[in-house]
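Lab manual, section 2.4: Encoding a predicted structure.

Procedure: take the sequence of the chain (366 residues), apply the prediction step described in section 2.3, and record the output as structure tokens. A sample record is shown.
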Amino acid sequence: MELDGTAPTSENISLTLAEQLGITDVDIQERKDLLGLGREDEAELGSFSEISRRVVQDVVDEFYVNQTSVPHIRTLIGDTETLQRLRSAMRDYVITLFQGDYGTDYVNSRLRIGKVHARIGVPPKLYVSSLYVLECIINKHFTQTGAGSAPTEALRRLLSFDLQFVFDTYIQGLMSQVQLARNELVEYSRSLEKKVAERTETIQKLALLDDLTGLGNRRAFFSSVAEELKTTRRAKGRLSLVFADLDGFKRINDTEGHVAGDEILKTVGRLITEVVAAPQTAFRYGGDEFCVLLRDTDAKQASAFAVRLHAQVKEEFGDKVQLSIGTASVGPDEFLDIDAFVAAADAEMYQDKHQKSPRKPVAVKT
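Recorded output:
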């Protein structure tokens, strides 16, 4: 993982932390100037290099005695193994404070320190207080060596310089978290919109289905008729409508009950679906009435479909129930509006119901 919270890419995998944060040599010098950390300070700090190596162990020992006395810090440190790794890292840190060279390599080491502390969850208040404690302990041990005054002011400016870069990584980490949270929110929003769209589509589809038979309902029928008439007229094609009604259904409802009647309706719906070939569409018009829209179908073909449907129902139910069927056809030159189209098929269905005579194809004309 990199500072921005993303996996390394071929573009940034070779970049240093400073480069990733856009920290240049010019920026480093500007930061020094703002703190008054000049070449004389760097030289003074470098002059204590040998002394720092002599006292570093005592400094580290006293520092961690102090740190582990703070409950919050002790909890963050955790086990003994972690404490040993921290002691070793602190030893290196103290020595580099007095190396006398505070350029890009030094800055990258400070950015790494900030990155590690941010990852393990050290809050800024603890980091700043710990840095202050470290400063006091270093000055104390330097003074006790008898080598003269400790580089108090130069050290303070350098530690402030360090603190800038540590906080840069903290801030970058926070920005990464905000960006990550934003990305997650955007993704969640998109996911939510997709779910809402899918559920809306499902609801819309369910609103157009007959619960009992699974065929389109009356609302879906009129919507489809309107669309099919418009499409067929524009294409100068043909469209037929089959209107079917169950004979004997009321007697079954009255003698055997509505449960038995519902089973009859579901079975008829299934039979219609078996006879109807895509892309034709079947509907339960209401009660015991069913409709089928037959695209690219003329009156003769519609009549043949009605015969097949009659035969299918006869095979399933025998004389228990039968279908009365009417058909109407339009196109390619003559068309009806919706009401007239439905009425024409309905009228032939009633003719079939009352006469039960051999069926003849009916082509509707205006």
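Check your result against the sample. The CA atoms of residues 36 and 157 lie 7 Å apart.
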